[in-house]
Structure formats: C-alpha cells, structure tokens
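Open question from group meeting: does this chain pack into something compact, or does most of it stay loose? Before anyone orders reagents, we agreed to write out a predicted structure and look at it together. Recording both the input and the output here so the notebook holds the full record.
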Amino acid sequence: MLVFLRHFGCTFCREAMSDIREQRREIEASPANIALVHSATEAEAGPYLEKFGLADLPRHADPERRLYAAFGLQRGNLAQLFGVKCIMRGFAAGVLEGHGVGPLTGDGFQMPGVFVVRDGAIVREFRHRSAADRPDYAAIARGA
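Structure tokens returned:
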C-alpha cells in the first residue's frame, strides 16, 4: 500500500500519519505492507516520521514529485485546498484533535492518495478530491 502524503506542515498530513500509526496493526494484518511517499527531502521527513512512529516504514523522498505524477496525483486547486470543507475539517483536525500545523515541507499544493499495488497493477485506490478527505487506510488495505 503506497500512501502519498501532503507536506508535513499540513494538519491533514499529520492526521494521516496519526491514522496510519493507529491502524498499522490492522493494515499489516491484511496482505498489504505500508510504504510512504512524500515530497520533502529525507532530512525534512525524518523528524516527522519519527514523531508519528513511522520512521521504520519504507519510504521514498520525491521532491520533484515524479512518482506523484506517475500515479496521476495532481496539484490541488484553491477549492480543494482551502474550500469550506478544508476550513471546517482543518479546524477539527488541527485544533480539536491537536494535529496542529507547521512549516511548509514539500509542495503545499500536492494532492495525496493511497494505492494498493499487486504484481505491478493498482488493485485499489483512494484519490483525494479535497485535502480534507480522510481515507480509512485499514479498509483500503483489506479491500473493504
């Protein structure tokens, strides 16, 4: 399962890492293994992945976003990044759930996504329509 993250300062990226940490056992109990893709440098990513207990996962630093493009993940528009849904969910995730926000580390406009790949083919995918979308990683891994 390839998880393409937004930038590490994004409250939704922090929420995603927290969700993956919480669902990790269930994900790894499925046939899927987790690998992360991010648009920061490896030096920038390390402290965030360590903080969320994900530093031991395979990961790929993709500052040029070539892998994002290969999977068809585009840069978001203003509505996808700053629309009403993002503002409402951003407040909930950032303030109420405590994920906060941080400095821009990577491309702030890059949209995330989740892909389960088997034998070189995408068998399941979740493409964010909004930065505020919150996938159920374990359900994606199980194929539910």
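Observations to bring back to the group:
The mean pLDDT is 93.
The longest strand covers residues 121-127.
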